[in-house]
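Chain X:
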Amino acid sequence: MVNPALVDPDTIRATAAEAWIRGRPILENYRTLYTQALDDADPRYVGGFGVFRHYPRPFTPANTDVVSPSNDTPYSWAWLDLRTEPWVLSVPAVDRYYVLPVHELDTVYAGFVGSRSTGQEAGDHLVAGPDWDGEPPAGISSVIRAATRLVGIVGRTQAVGTSPEAVRELGGIQQRYLLRPLHVHTGTPEPEPARQPVWPVWRESVLDTVEFFSFLDFLLGFFPALPTEAGLRGRLTDLGVDGRGEFEPATLPMAVRAEMERGIADGKAALARAVARTESSVGLFGTRERIGTKYLEQAVGAVTGLYGLPVEEAWYGAWQADSEGHRPPDAGRRDHRTPGLVRDPDGGLTLHLSHRPPTDPAAAANWLPVPDGPFTAVLRLYGPDGAVLDGRWTPPPLTPR
């Protein structure tokens, strides 16, 4: 409940705007968590907390968990509730690129298990929440300490071909990614389980209304305040958003509600401007050390490429408009393994995006078919080199012909 004696009326709008931007990734994450770990009637349900659901086959338009899914690295999804005890993530020896990134409630990464970060050897990796202060058992390969009590994993494993044999081989690797509570791994007694909360039912409408703060209030109960955001958390507490899950918009004084609604509008406008000027994934995804308090950039990443990887793992770019400022039509997919591509004389590659195939044979070989309508073209570079990471290389313009 709002404490009028503590609230400075002049700060309500700014606080609501800042908190809406700060909280947007948290709610974007909860949208997926709800469908995958809580709503067993949803086709995207993975089976609850503590289990993997693997996708060894190429994605289709029916797969909506990720904004722009990748068929080069099929997914392995899982969610962990770390309130009772840590979990152990076990992996086999893997002879190809893979990554099992552990993201926190606001989509910042707590750590990574994978060929780039922990190697290609088999190992057992501990994932612990903010309330655990124990010692890792013997034999643990690495420890990932999360700042939130709920975390997710969107694993990627390189696909090598799409033949039935290749799909079976990929599925065999994925099936050996295992999750176990710490007490099962160590063979010790099971601790007293944490109380199950009443999970709020996800509705898209909450993103645009003051009810946004009801969901944020509930989810902050799984997210101990970080020292860097003590000021914002304090101002939110004065407004009744304190992590107890009891915030009720209907009890707000009309003047306070009106200022919070204006703040939401301000936050939405600021996010829209930031999205419009964003041309790559650099600075949008990463660990707490890298992201810091860049909450606007973090929100851009959540709404344009939820669960995107940091640039060390993958670089993402997109053309929101062509070189003349027009939005291009929707793109399909090609990669460096596509047979028959025709290189430019200098070794470069020119792709032709159009609804109908080009008549020129060389252009047709590099044709990327697209629907006859608006789209965003997305470029991914896995394991990018230094020229990409430091900005010396940038995507060429998408030029209409």
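Chain Y:
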Amino acid sequence: MKKGDYEAIVQAALIEDLGDLGDVTTNSVVDESARSTAHFVARAPGVVAGAEVAASVFHRIDPTVDIEMSPDGTVAPEGDTIGRVSGLSRSLLSAERTALNLLARMSGVATATAAYVAAVSGTNAKIMDTRKTMPGLRILDKYAVTVGGGVNHRIGLYDAAMIKDNHIMAAGDIRQAVSAARASVGDMEIVVEVEDLDQLSEVLDTDADRVLLDNMSIVMLREAVKMCAGRMPTEASGGVNLSTVGEIAATGVDFISVGAITHSAPQLDIALDFIS
């Protein structure tokens, strides 16, 4: 993730927090020359993601702040110190909550993703995200998925064609939908969602790039994988949780898309503890 990908998000978050008057509490009770040092502490075990984003919050408020963070992807046990920041006390206090909000959310997504990745260990399946992200924070959510060991689906509606049931109904049938999409998007990836093996057979007669097997039973998934072998990558979706993902992966699908790793991931509990 490049700096330009998140600068606008950081700026908007700080505007939301500081408003026009700034941190009125800190500015009224803390001397402007006071200096402090604080540690980022993981209050629960998890995977660190968003270290650079958190640092940018402090540096946007005060470029002189000194900050060191554990690199993204660090697996932190409960109680582990994952970063250190020092500088003017006012700067640290004013940046604290915004930095923690972003760091905790991203680390939560990375931690949730890592749990799913671990659950499919030993199979060829890759855990994939969806567009079920927090509006305005998609680039951070999807980056955090990669930190947790997952892979990204399309970023938005503009970088891949994904033909779903309503598209098929509106276009007439699967072949017409794929043909029209290919004529329009050229070499861009085309993914087609199917709900049964008859629809899958239709997709296999097109030049789609991947098929999404939606809400299929384990038995049907196994058969679908056999039908697609050597012809088209498969993606399973629907009914995926930590209890079911291992069995789904064992069917031989190439990808498993999981909305929960972004739309339901709890924030990782991270604190900023002042030590001086």
